[in-house]
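User: As part of a screening pipeline, I want to sanity-check one entry by hand. Below is the sequence and the SMILES for magnesium ion. Please return the complex as structure tokens so I can compare it with the automated output.
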Amino acid sequence: MTQLSAAQTPQAKPSDGSKALYGGKSTRRITVRDIAAAKERGEKWPMLTAYDAMTASVFDEAGIPVMLVGDSAGNCHLGYDTTVPVTLDEMTMLSAAVVRGTSRALIVGDLPFGSYQEGPVQALRSATRLVKEAGVGAVKLEGGERSHRQIELLVESGIPVMAHIGLTPQSVNAMGYRVQGRGEEAAAQLMRDAKAVQDAGAFAVVLELVPAELAAEVTRMLHIPTVGIGAGAQTDAQVLVWTDMLGLTAGRVPKFVKQYADLRAVMGDAAKAFAEDVVGGTFPREEHSVH
Ligand SMILES: Nc1nc(=O)c2c([nH]1)NC[C@@H]1CN(c3ccc(C(=O)N[C@@H](CCC(=O)O)C(=O)O)cc3)CN21
Ligand SMILES: CC(C)C(=O)C(=O)O
Ligand SMILES: [Mg+2]
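Assistant: Here is the complex for your manual check:
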């Protein structure tokens, strides 16, 4: 017998949106069970990165339901060239700040390069630090088939895992920053990776820089939500690096980025206006002085 999801059963009430991940009524902390329910409802949802409490509080108040403390903090927040040098100590500190700055969003902490590749036991030790010391609700790690044993042990141990396949930036020295899944062999590998992380128990999977048609196929195949970045419009969720989408990243940004503001110009202009005031003696004025 064919299983009907709740959303498809004839007696199900039409969704009134009150449970929606974005725009819903609930103010309690979102959990991975809420994420699973959103896929059942066929609901799309947004995810942004965050690396500090202040920024995270802005996105939390804006209703962003899931935030990723990405190891993109390496190049976007800490001044490294890539994500490769980022340490677990750094991710723990940044993740704790993001958890403190939020009350509703599910916070996902990225496991940095070198903190899980040795095997499942190392992965569990690293993920446990993010859960206990930072208070994240889930962790993310890179790799499909190659990481399935790590995912299995974390999930068995009670730590929800978001997987990440396609372009995996921690492997930049081996694969560069190139579109993944082009051609029959690479597409078949991506499908195997997607199946492997779902079977290992991941609650969601990031698809980075893969052809839109392939990302759509993976999204239809899986019962867990797909989170796209440079993966077309058919994934269940979309993620962007916050400094990219707000125009704060220095230099080139990937072409899949949509820029929603120009904070680099706003902040630069404000800094210049302050400097001019100081040099010209027009700040502080009487109202900014104490006597
Ligand atoms: N600022 C920033 N934004 C990101 O999205 C991001 C990071 N940093 N750091 C971690 C990873 C690395 N990511 C990257 C890095 C480079 C490309 C890139 O150069 N893409 C090329 C296309 C390459 C191709 O067509 O094969 C581009 O022009 O978009 C993409 C994603 C995504 N993540
Ligand atoms: C780009 C996202 C998926 C990420 O892994 C990060 O920001 O580190
Ligand atoms: Mg990352």
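Points to compare against the pipeline: The first strand starts at residue 45 and ends at 49. The mean pLDDT is 95.
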